[in-house]
UniProtKB/TrEMBL annotation:
Feature: compositional bias, Acidic residues: 18-32
Highest taxon listed in the record's lineage: Eukaryota
GO cellular component: nucleus
Annotated CDD domains: cyclophilin_WD40 (cd01927)
Protein name per its UniProtKB record: peptidylprolyl isomerase
MF annotations from Gene Ontology: peptidyl-prolyl cis-trans isomerase activity
UniProt keyword annotation of Repeat present: yes
Amino acid sequence: MTTNGDQPAERPLSAIPEDQDVGPEVPADGDGDLLGPVLPKAKRRKIVEHEATFLEALPSGAMYERSWMHRDTITHVAVAPAAEFFITASCDGHLKFWKKKAEGLEFAKHFRAHIGPIVGLAVSHDSTLLVSISSDKTVKVYDVNTCDMMSMLRLPFVPSCAEWIYQKGEAKARLAIADRDSPAVHVFDVRGGTNEALETFSVHRAPISAMSYNAVHDVVISIDDRGVIEYWSATTHGFPAEGVQFRSTLDTDLYACAKVKATTRDIAFSRDGSQFAMLCSDRRVRVWRFATGKLRRTYDESLDAANELQRAGPESLRLDPIDFGRRQALDKEFAAEGSASETAAATPAANVVFDESGNFVLYPTLLGIKVVNLVTNRVARVIGFGEANERFIMTALFQGSQRPDVSKAARLADSNRAPTKDPTLVACAFRRQRLYIFSRREPADYDDATAGRDVFNEKPPADEMLAIEDGGPEGGVGELPRGAIIHTTRGDIHCKLFPDECPKTVENFTTHAKNAYYEGIIFHRVIKGFMIQTGDPLGDGTGGASIWGAEFGDEFSRALRHDRPFTLSMANSGPSTNGSQFFITTVPTPWLDNKHSIFGRVVKGADVVLAIERAKTDRNDKPVDDIKIVNIENLTSVE
């Protein structure tokens, strides 16, 4: 249609149908008139519906809420979700059951199970049976619901791993045990009352290092020392007839580990049996689709990848350089011990766990325990990111619901109450005798220092005994001073101390004060708009020692933060390197939280602190004119 001068009539935008494109038409596929490349259609970013709900069902603590002890290094953790039990094992052959409560855990039972180290734990898919195997060639079987040992087997070989391979309702409770020195797999009926194997067969050409049962498809996946992965039927022990979409492993990615000579000591299945994952010896997390044997995701968690993340990764995942260096050194020690045959049995095996939805995997890294969204391919959170002194290794996840422990009458009267959800992750760490509990709660603030988050349910090792037994000149925690006056050449600084929250730090500070250790020491580092630092007898920031002669650990509390000026905090060169040096902040410094131990606050004399801060300094932040501590006077209380 045209108007005056045959000019096209203008159409208002409102007259154009919504389904009509505005602008040049995009040629249809196969248009022969189009020359040159065609831009591909933009892919829509994948999302997980109700992601926030799924994350609500996972632990989120940046610090562990509580820890309990074994007598020796913990090497295995497992969970029986239907029975609401966690099970832990240590390298001295001891086993402990922990009952999941409405909030946290409760110790249930202790077994001196084996003479040698425990090399494997396995819980049946219905959470009724547990097996522990040891290098002493014994096998112990437990009833999880009653926490009782029900049978014992003596083997003619050293086992490497074990797995339950029976379906719910079967008369025989079949247990598969792999030989450490041959490819053989031996199947036992633990209810049969005999040490004789029902069957012995081989599906590999090398000893098996890990195997896991997919109860949905009645199929076992195993991996050997060469990294070769095999599928086999739990019933016939041959290639599965159903549930898989391939007939040859050459059509899959099951040789991904063998190609790089990597293996693993743990295989995890998603709840629906559609995926399985491994944290391999080459520090890669690999996730496969069960039906096709194709890799879905691969995540590089090597030290090189950690260095690159520290250099150019998101700010939220970067660490203080000193903190990162210490974690990196600890990670290298873990890698060295895990690969050495003589120490492997006492070193936990790193593992992967799926959440209930199958959309997330959780696995331990140098930074903490990562929660990765498999759909969006992003890190959703890092559990335990604030724990600089622990290298978490093996984890077990519980996402079920519990009802509070109340009487039967109360339960009947309140039967409509929704079960309590308390997602809990239990982890063990490198060279640690403790199991660490993560939840959606941060550590509680305890008024009684003896009731802190680290429970001493066993006799502590020598380094921990130092913290709780060596009372020092001031005696117990209850007798520690609760205040101090720092007399300086510029005036007096009155401080309130926190012996309940950080007894070791306060004991160290007040004992040094009583022994005249700080007399004549200068403020060697003064930075305007930041802090004033002292406590070094050498006067250059490189000296100082604790009252015990060695460096001592950090003490952090949620109630004590660098959220205000005039905070007393310990100076250090990294986690758990406290000596005698301390500093007083002049502004809020929240980036120092969980890195430096707060042990006091200035209650009077802030003007003296600011006067010292304004002192003229040289290029090394040292005052040109010396400002000294005359002495420090301890006080039993502070008004």
